[in-house]
Amino acid sequence: MTMAVTLEAPPVVSAVRTKRRHKKTGWLFILPFLIVFVAFLLAPLLYAGYLSLYTKGLATGTTFAGFDNYTRAFGDPSFRKGLWFVLKFSAVVIPLQIVVALVAALVLDEVTGRLARFSRLVIFLPYAIPVVLGALMWGFLYSPSFGPIEQIATAFDVRAPFLLSQGNIFYGLLNVVTWQWSGYYMIIIYAALRGIDSSIYEAARIDGASARQIAFRIKVPMVSSALVLILIFSLIGTLQFFTEPQILGPIANGSVTPDFTPNIYAYYLAFRYAQFNYASAISFSLGFVVFLVVAIFMVATRKRGSLFT
Amino acid sequence: MRPRHVGAKLLLLALCGYFLVPVWWLLVASTKNAEGLFSGSGALWFNGFHLVGNLRDLFTFNNGEFVRWLGNSVLYALAGGIGCTVISVLAGYGFAKYTFRGRNPVFALVLGSVMVPLTALVIPTFVLMSNVGLIDTIWAVILPSLLSPFAVYLMRVYAAASVPDELLDAARIDGAGELRTFVRVALPLMRPGVITVLLLSIVTTWNNYFLPLTMLSSSKLFPLPVGIGLWTQLASSNNAGGQSLWNLIIVGSLVSIVPLIVAFLTLQKYWQGGLAVGSLK
Q1: What is the ipTM of this complex?
Q2: Please, which residues have CB within 8 angstroms of residue B274's CB and are 6 or more apart in sequence?
Q3: Are residues A96 and A166 in the same domain?
Q4: Under DSSP, is residue A169 helix (H, G, I), strand (E, B) or coil?
Q5: Which CATH number belongs to the domain containing residue A85 in this structure?
Q6: What pLDDT sits at residue B4?
Q7: Which residues on B lie below 8 Å from A116 (Cβ)?
Q8: Which residue of B has its CA nearest to A248?
Q9: Transmembrane segments in this chain: where (chain A) (predicted)?
Q10: Residues 52..81 of A with a Cβ closer than 8 Å to B: which?
């Protein structure tokens, strides 16, 4: 109300008019993004929510089902199995990636020279390689028919484990994902480390701190917001695990079942069995779990500062 | 050189070895013919040199469908990547440099949407797209690629840090319009951030697998990852014709990873600086 009055008052015209113009311009700058955001995020999300509340039967047609699809999803052994797998996988792969990335970043922050510059690029390299191809390359390396692992083992007269067998695929995938993403996380941590004012290290050194103490007592706490960012990103990514197992499926002799991860399950339901309603409910349930895990995590780390503060 | 750096350097060498092994293997395997590939010895060393022949086979196989996929990938990556960058830079600048009613709730919504599992969107997007008849067209891949809430977040942080308000006010007092101020004053200052976002969104589109896999059914529209995925399925389900196809998959993978590696190497001073600002916030 007060605002409308000021806007119509003529005497202060120039300042107020520029201000009002700025307000409109702000909206104009974000408008193209908002259109895309509504069309490809909000609308599909709402539509998926709507789809998930209905069921489609051959005889009965489309009927309102309320939360039946969700009750079915959380009671569905296939969904639970996939969910358990991605949760277990996240619990191992995320700490592993962060340790590799953090150690590499700390070393690269300390060592200078040609080797360090070269290593920084090499460690980051897998990020520039499509996930499909990263998974394929490792699949080839694991392959008993032309991979080196089998050949080296044969040379020593032992049998190499096939890393895509039912019992080993967890480790096979663990390696692929660590290889693919650690370098990207390393660069983020490294960039944060470079941003620290190095006079702090000088002061610590004068106080008698060792290199190790400086690394763990000063550097690591100072990049904690970058670590939280990475953790959230890799959590969101890993819970949606799809591409690597999907690509390795054909060469894994049946280790990758259609319910291997919740996303693969939703994909099969939607595009092989045309169960779009139930598939939407599975996607939404997965989204809910992602949201829940990330929220719990953010509350737990709030004191250390995070992306959202 | 202080002695403690010896351990650090050995560690770096070990890491380099680990991260290079698959790429090295790919390079070596690309130079082998089917016989050399399956010979059962020396997977990590050369055995004959057939790279040129393999490339010729790759580019001519099945009426040159690989070349088509390569062209599609370039088209999707450029259209999606450039479009996404333009939209995100405008939005990031708008959020950083203008105060308007509803700015904070809208930005919170955008930030929260980073948490939405993208795959939760693919299925409903598919159904919505098929309602308007866009399924199995290039638009089904390009249009959803324009969305990147993270790029908007990155550009907001970058614009706030690199464009001083005083400079914008000075330009306005000199009579420059808002758009002109943005293009002439703000954009040059934001250049490293813009290049970072451009590179990240091109990589994302180039690497995208799930979206084109669901949206496209005719193989002539496939981008590289989906095409190579198709070849893998063919090769593993068909053991007789499979051998020669594995060679094509390997040399095709090599050709697919070269462009982005070159892009990252030539633009490294930009993206390294750009990522620094994004992660410091």
Answers
A1: 0.86
A2: B154, B158, B192, B193, B195, B196, B197
A3: yes
A4: helix
A5: 1.10.3720.10
A6: 59
A7: 12
A8: B232
A9: 27-50, 83-108, 120-141, 169-193, 214-236, 278-300
A10: none
Q: Do B260 and A128 touch (CB under 8 A)?
A: yes
Is residue A131 a part of any domain in this protein?
Answer: yes
Of residues B97, B110, B276, nearest to A37 (C-beta) = B110
- pLDDT by residue (tens digit) across A13-54? 444 455 555 668 888 999 999 999 999 999 998 998 888 888
A213 contacts chain B (CB < 8 A):
no
In angstroms, the CA A28 to CA A232 distance is: 31
Partner-chain residue, chosen from B13, B110, B120, that has the shortest CB–CB distance to A286? B120
Distance from CA of B63 to the nearest CA of A (A): 23
The answer to whether the CB atoms of A130 and B263 lie below 8 A apart is: no
Say if A217 is an interface residue toward chain B (CB within 8 Å): no
Task: For residues A33 and A112, state if they share a domain.
Answer: no
Residue B22 in domain: no
pLDDT at A308: 43
Higher model confidence: residue B210 or residue B116?
B210
Q: Do the beta carbons of residue A217 and residue A72 sit within 8 Å?
A: no
CATH of the domain at B228: 1.10.3720.10
Q: Is B180 among the domain residues?
A: no
CA atoms of A284 and A264, how far apart (whole Å): 14
- At residue A63, the 3 state secondary structure works out as strand
Q: Whole domain around residue A9: which residue ranges?
A: 2-52
Count of beta carbons in the 10 Å neighbourhood of residue A299: 10
- Residue B177 is assigned to a structural domain of this protein: no
Nearest CA in chain A to B113: A41
